[in-house]
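Thread: "does anyone have the structure for this chain?"

Original post by V.I.:
We have the sequence but no experimental structure in hand. Need at least a predicted one for the grant figures.
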Amino acid sequence: MAREQGYALYALTFHYGQRHSQEIEAARRVAEWLGVAEHVVQHFDLRVFGGSALTSELAVPKVGGARGGSIIPITYVPARNTIFLSVALAFAETRGAQDIFLGVNAVDYSGYPDCRPAFIEAFERLANVATKAGVDGRGFHIRAPLLRMSKADIVREGARLGLDFALTHSCYDPPDERVACGLCDSCTLRREGFRTAGIADPIQYASSQPGL
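Reply from O.Q.:
Generated one for you, C-alpha cells below.
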C-alpha cells in the first residue's frame, strides 16, 4: 500500500526471541518482492523478560484466543509494538523518513492493547516530542492503513495489489518450516479472512480443521 502511494521503502524486521524464524524468512521474501531500498533485521532478545507464549515455554493456545475484548491472551508480548516503533523511529530519523508504516489491526485481532487506535495516536505524539526531527519541525506520521480493516478486507486488498500470499507467514507455532499449525489464533484469523474474502490461501496447514 505504501509502495502504491509512491513511497521509497525501507523495511525493518525484528528477531526478538520469538518461537521460530519462519516469519523472519517471510519478511525477507516480501521485502525482496517489494524491491525495498534497504531491509534491516534488528536482533534483541525479549526472552530475558518472558511473560508471553511467544517468548517463553508457555504453550500457544490452539483453540482461538480472546479477540477484541477485555481478556488479553498469553500470546501478547509485553510492550512489543512500543519497542518496535521506538526502534523504527530511530531508523526513520537516520534515513530522513517521516512516515512509519506498520500493519497493526484493531478489528479482527487478538485483543492486544498495542494494536488500538489510541496507541497509534499516542505514539505519534511521542515521536514528535522525543526526536530532533520532531523538534526541528520535520514531524513523523505513524501510518497504520490496516487498522480498521477486517481480515477479509486485508486479503482482498493484498490480492488487488498483486501480493503473492505464498510469500507470507502468520502462524504463532508452526510445526516445521513448511507448514502452519492451522489451529492457533493467528491461523484461525487468517483462514477465516481468506474464507470470507472468497480467495484461496496458498500456504499449507498441518491441521485441516481451522480452530474456530
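V.I.: this helps a lot. The chain has one domain: 10-197.
O.Q.: and Residues 65-69 have pLDDT under 50 and may be disordered.
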